[in-house]
């Protein structure tokens, strides 16, 4: 008799791989050496006073205000997809727990790939880049919510993770 074999490895294996990758990430973080501060830290202001200064600066800088508004809108719409991953996994994968682990891991792979591939850019292109990546993230989020097959869900989750980080 033919026995259907699952496409994805067991849930325990996925969590074990995640633990190993997380451990390696912690090791890399421990080896990082930060450059010394070039400017002395500011002192004398309260936390709320400094927050007020920051908001006043944003209100007086139209470009910064626009960029932060775009970030807020994109974050509220695209970032919310990560919270829907359990429901998406339940509708796409035969095993809910395995599907959740796979989609969460796929989003993490996308985020790491984005972080590793980002380079220094000019501030002039910042708004265009934010709009582009949130737009692509929106498309990936739509594909993720409509995925009927685990492979398309994984690819879309990688895209969501990549664009959120970028």
Question: Would you kindly provide a brief summary of this structure?
Answer:
With 166 residues, the chain is an all-alpha fold. The chain contains 8 helices and no strands.
What is the average per-residue confidence, as pLDDT, rounded to a whole number?
80
Radius of gyration: 20 Å
Strand percent estimate:
under 5%
Pattern of helices and strands: HHHHHHHH
Question: What can you see in these coordinates?
Answer:
By secondary structure, the chain is mainly α. It is built from eight helices and no strands. Helix 1 runs parallel beside helix 6, helix 5 packs across helix 6 and helix 6 runs parallel beside helix 8. The termini are far apart.
List the helices and strands and how they pair.
Layout: H1 11-31, H2 47-60, H3 62-77, H4 80-83, H5 85-92, H6 96-117, H7 126-146, H8 150-165
Helix pairs in contact: 1-6, 3-7, 5-6, 6-8, 7-8
Features:
166 residues, 8 helices, 0% strand
């Amino acid at each position: 008799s033919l026995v259907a074999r699952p496409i994805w490895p067991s849930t325990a294996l996925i969590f074990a791989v995640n633990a190993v990758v997380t451990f390696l990430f912690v090791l890399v973080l421990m080896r990082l050496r930060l450059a010394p501060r070039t400017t002395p830290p500011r002192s004398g202001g309260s936390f709320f006073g400094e927050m007020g200064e920051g908001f006043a600066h944003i209100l007086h800088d139209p470009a910064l205000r626009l960029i932060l508004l775009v970030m807020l809108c994109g974050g509220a719409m695209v970032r919310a997809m990560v919270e829907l991953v359990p429901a998406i996994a339940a509708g796409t994968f035969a095993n809910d727990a395995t599907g959740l682990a796979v989609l969460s891991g796929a989003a993490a792979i996308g985020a790491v790939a984005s972080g590793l591939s980002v380079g220094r850019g000019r501030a002039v292109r910042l708004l265009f880049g934010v709009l582009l990546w949130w737009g692509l993230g929106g498309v990936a989020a739509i594909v993720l919510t409509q995925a009927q097959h685990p492979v398309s869900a994984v690819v879309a989750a990688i895209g969501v993770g990549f664009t959120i980080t970028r």
